[in-house]
Amino acid sequence: MTDRPGVRFDQLTGHLIGERVTVSERRLAGMEGYFTDTAAWALADQNAVVYRVEAYEPVPEGVLGGIGLATTYLFPGSIGGEYYMTRGHFHSNADGPELCMTISGSGALILMSRDRETRYEMMSLGSVHHVPSETAHKAANIGTDALVFVSYWSSEIGHDYETIKKSGFSRRLISVNGIAELR
Ligand code: PAN
Ligand code: ZN
To answer: What is the pLDDT of residue 6?
Structure first.
C-alpha cells in the first residue's frame, strides 16, 4: 500500500508526471497524406514536431474498466494554409465518447460523424468539449502559441486511425487571410 498516487497532473501547464506516463511526439515526417497540400508538406522540415502527447492509461487499451487520460501539446504552424493539427481518429471496438478540456492556446476541435458531416468547436482556455460516440475528432491550432488540451476516454475503446488516413475528413480548417474557415 502507498499513499502516493503514481501520476500527477499540473493544472497550469497540463503536464502529466510519473513513471507510468508515456510520451510520444509526432513530427511532420509522420503525417504523410494528412495535409491537403502534399507538395508544401514535402518541402517543409520533416523534423518539425507538430504535437506531443503525454498519456496515462491505467488499464490497457481495449480492456474494460479504466479511463485514459492524455495531454496534447499541439504546436503552432501551417502547411499550405492548413493549420497544424492532430491526425484524428474514430474510436473503435466498443465505440465510446471522449471529453476534452482546453488548458491554453486557441484552436478548433473538428468533429465528423460517420456520414461525414463535419463541424467544429472553438477551443480556448477552459472550454469543455464532448466528442460523441461514432465521431472522428482532431484538433487544429489556429493561434501563435501551443494549443494544450486534456482528453479522457474509456479504456475499452480502441483507436481507429486507418479510416481517417484513407478517407480524411470531409472538410478542412484553412487560414483565409488569417481567419479560420472550414472548407
Ligand atoms: C487524444 C488524441 C491526441 C493525439 O488524446 O489521441 O490528441 O491525436 P491523434 O491520436 O489523433 O494523433 C484522443 O483523442 N484520445 O482518444
Ligand atoms: Zn480520441
So the answer is: 86
Q: pLDDT tens for residues 92-134?
A: 988 899 999 999 999 999 999 999 999 999 999 999 999 999 9
Residue 120 CB partners (closer than 8 Å, separation 6+): 108, 109, 110, 111, 140, 173, 182
Does this model's pTM top 0.90? My answer is yes
Look over the chain and give the mean of its residue pLDDT values, rounded to a whole number.
96
- Which ligand minimizes its atom distance to the CA of 55? 1
d(CA 88, CA 170): 12
pLDDT for the residue numbered 94: 86
C-alpha 86 to ligand 1 mean position (Å): 7
Residues with CB under 6 A from ligand 1: 53, 70, 72, 86-89, 98, 137-138, 151, 153
